[in-house]
């Protein structure tokens, strides 16, 4: 849709209104206007002025048919970029000077074209003389448009260029924000790429004239725009290398891009000292190699099902064609249709948008991977319980809060009786299913804020916030009953399983390590007393430093006695 809009804006010029011819050399204006060099002008096909030399040259536009003054006609030189033009209309002794930037800029019109009014119109056979100083080798198409048509085309041009430059600027700022916020270096390279592209387009397209101090520099020195172009390619290559992880996945392509970046940096330094035409040619060739390499590695990575490469292919598939057409024209290979002047910046903006979406998707994938790894580190895969490190960390926090608020906290340690015998007799698969079912039965008997963690092997730790020892003993008895109340059904077989449990309550000022030692001692007391029972560990009534176990033992029918 955007390409179609660009083609609408760049409606082709009218029929052949002029005979276009060029004069080699730069004689004084008086000699040219007097007709002394009339026979030296060489005819040029088409309706465009294509000047490749940086030396000023004379061009002549001879009207094939009359141009009536009724519609306020204007001579329009489309897409002049950095070219400067002096125009002598019939009868003019002093030329009109036109350029997109600098002191000769006509701010009454957009940067789409250089506009020269023809208030008297043109008679058939009358000529307009132009002295062209070309700082960019891009052809300027020639047309005559009524003033109303000029304004309509200008409005469309401004809308499209505002969209392109606005998109690139906003994406660059977003990338900076992501870079600062999450510290991902790939966003920095993307931001630099987009910003350099926006500045390059603004320099060669004339929008930089909104900044007068920079416009004066750009208008007289093409090295400024070229510098932004070179910098954008270097940043783009660096972005591709990081985004597709070329050093590890595609080292051969990485070496090619390293070579291109080295050449571009040399050209960047050379650009500071010269405006020679050869530098632009070499830069365009390196740019072509970089673009072809980027597209090739994107296709290769996409073929290997690398997710990030899909976005690169989507971004570069249209861009590679536009780049080839654009650079081919700059190198003098062919003439592109006029709508290409809009297709290329639109392609840059859309490519930047796709890459931003792709990089955001890449970061989301990294976050999902990180969350998955975090979950694996936090929860046991087999039982769904917290891992040892996770429950220890949370127990430390709960113990600190309990000390600070003088609130009770208890823990329950339990394991499955004769669990090693189950593994040895029936295999680890049955043992794993036993552990999973026991974890499910016991966890369902806890409150939502109680913590349930696998401490190692078949040993489970339960943390009971705001729970005193007597209440914790009841909870532990409930856990024991949840397992031995009925056999476990595993692979069409029934297994009778019981638990041994140890309970301890946190004392004020006590460390977590000491609390767990007492709960573990109570667990071993249950085992020593015959298993399938609950033992609570508390301080003696005399509050001595020694601790004595108090056992709450139940027989297989669930009857309890207190010892």
Helix-strand blueprint:
Elements: H1 2-9, E1 18-23, H2 29-33, E2 42-44, E3 48-49, E4 57-63, E5 73-78, E6 84-88, E7 96-98, E8 113-117, E9 127-133, E10 140-146, H3 147-182, H4 185-205, H5 212-220, H6 223-243, H7 246-249, H8 251-271, H9 277-303, H10 307-330, H11 340-378, H12 388-405, E11 409-416, H13 419-426, H14 428-443, E12 451-456, E13 459-465, H15 469-484, E14 488-490, E15 493-495, E16 499-505, H16 512-528, E17 534-539, E18 547-554, E19 560-562
Parallel strand pairs: 16-17
Antiparallel strand pairs: 1-2, 1-4, 3-10, 4-9, 5-8, 5-10, 6-7, 6-9, 11-13, 11-16, 12-13, 14-15, 17-18, 18-19
Helix pairs in contact: 1-11, 3-4, 3-11, 4-6, 4-11, 6-8, 6-9, 8-9, 9-10, 10-11, 13-14, 14-15
Enzyme class: transferase
Domain GGDEF: 407-539
Keywords: Membrane, Signal, Transmembrane, Transmembrane helix
Explain this structure to me?
- The structure is a single chain.
- The chain has 563 residues and is of the alpha+beta class.
- It is built from 16 helices and 19 strands.
- Among the domains are: 16-151, Immunoglobulin-like (Sandwich); 388-562, Alpha-Beta Plaits (2-Layer Sandwich).
- The chain has helices at residues 2-9, 29-33, 147-182, 185-205, 212-220, 223-243, 246-249, 251-271, 277-303, 307-330, 340-378, 388-405, 419-426, 428-443, 469-484, 512-528; strands at residues 18-23, 42-44, 48-49, 57-63, 73-78, 84-88, 96-98, 113-117, 127-133, 140-146, 409-416, 451-456, 459-465, 488-490, 493-495, 499-505, 534-539, 547-554, 560-562.
- The strands form four sheets. It has a seven-stranded mixed sheet, sandwiched between helices. A six-stranded antiparallel sheet has the order 2-1-4-9-6-7, with no helix packed on it.
- The longest helix has 39 residues, at 340-378.
- The protein starts with a helix and ends with a strand.
- Residues 9-14 and 540-563 have low confidence and may be disordered.
- Its EC number is 2.7.7.65.
- Residues 407-539 form the GGDEF domain.
- This is diguanylate cyclase.
């Amino acid at each position: 849709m955007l390409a179609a809009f660009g083609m609408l804006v760049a409606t082709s010029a009218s029929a052949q209104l002029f005979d276009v011819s060029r004069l080699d050399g730069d004689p004084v204006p008086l000699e040219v206007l007097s007709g002394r060099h009339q026979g030296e002008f060489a005819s040029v096909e088409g309706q465009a002025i294509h000047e490749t030399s940086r030396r000023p040259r004379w061009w002549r536009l001879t009207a094939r048919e009359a141009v009536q003054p009724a519609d306020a006609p204007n001579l329009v030189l489309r897409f002049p970029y950095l070219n400067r033009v002096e125009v002598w209309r019939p009868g003019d002794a002093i030329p009109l000077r036109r350029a997109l930037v600098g002191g000769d800029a006509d701010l009454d019109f957009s940067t789409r074209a250089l506009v020269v009014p023809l208030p008297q119109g043109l008679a058939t056979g009358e000529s307009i003389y132009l002295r062209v100083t070309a700082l960019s080798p891009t052809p300027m198409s020639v047309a005559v448009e009524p003033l109303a048509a000029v304004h309509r085309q200008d409005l469309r041009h401004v809308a499209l260029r505002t969209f392109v430059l606005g998109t690139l600027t906003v994406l660059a700022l977003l990338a900076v924000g992501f870079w600062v916020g999450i510290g991902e270096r790939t966003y920095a390279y993307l931001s630099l790429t987009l910003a350099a592209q926006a500045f390059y387009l603004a320099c060669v397209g004339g929008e930089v004239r909104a900044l007068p101090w920079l416009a004066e520099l750009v208008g007289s020195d093409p090295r400024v725009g070229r510098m932004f172009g070179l910098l954008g390619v270097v940043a783009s290559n660096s972005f591709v290398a990081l985004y597709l992880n070329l050093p590890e996945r595609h080292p051969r392509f990485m070496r090619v891009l390293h070579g291109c970046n080295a050449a571009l940096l040399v050209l960047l330094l050379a650009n500071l000292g010269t405006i020679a035409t050869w530098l632009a040619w070499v830069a365009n060739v390196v740019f072509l190699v970089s673009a072809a390499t980027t597209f090739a590695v994107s296709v290769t990575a996409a073929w290997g099902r690398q997710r990030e490469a899909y976005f690169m292919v989507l971004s570069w598939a249209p861009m590679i064609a536009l780049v080839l057409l654009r650079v081919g024209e700059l190198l003098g290979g062919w003439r592109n249709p006029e709508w290409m002047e809009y297709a290329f910046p639109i392609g840059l903006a859309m490519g930047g948008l796709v890459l931003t979406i792709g990089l955001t998707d890449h970061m989301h994938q990294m976050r999902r991977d990180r969350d998955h790894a975090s979950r694996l580190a936090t929860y046991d895969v087999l039982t769904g319980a917290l891992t040892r490190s996770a429950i220890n960390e949370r127990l430390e926090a709960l113990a600190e809060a309990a000390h600070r608020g003088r609130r009770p906290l208890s823990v329950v340690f339990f394991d499955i009786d004769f669990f090693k015998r189950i593994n040895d007799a029936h295999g680890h698969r049955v043992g794993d299913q036993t552990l999973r079912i026991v974890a499910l039965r016991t966890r369902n008997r806890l409150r939502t804020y109680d913590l349930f963690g696998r401490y190692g092997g078949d040993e489970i730790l339960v943390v009971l916030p705001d729970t005193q020892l007597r209440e914790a003993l009841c909870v532990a008895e409930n856990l024991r009953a949840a397992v031995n109340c009925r056999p476990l059904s595993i692979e069409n077989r029934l297994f009778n399983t019981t638990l041994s449990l140890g309970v301890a309550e946190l004392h004020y000022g006590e460390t977590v390590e000491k609390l767990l030692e007492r709960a573990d001692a109570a667990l071993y007391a249950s085992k020593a007393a015959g298993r399938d029972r609950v033992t609570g560990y508390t301080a003696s009534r005399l509050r001595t430093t020694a601790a004595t176990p108090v056992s709450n033992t139940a027989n297989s029918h669930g009857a309890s006695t207190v010892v």
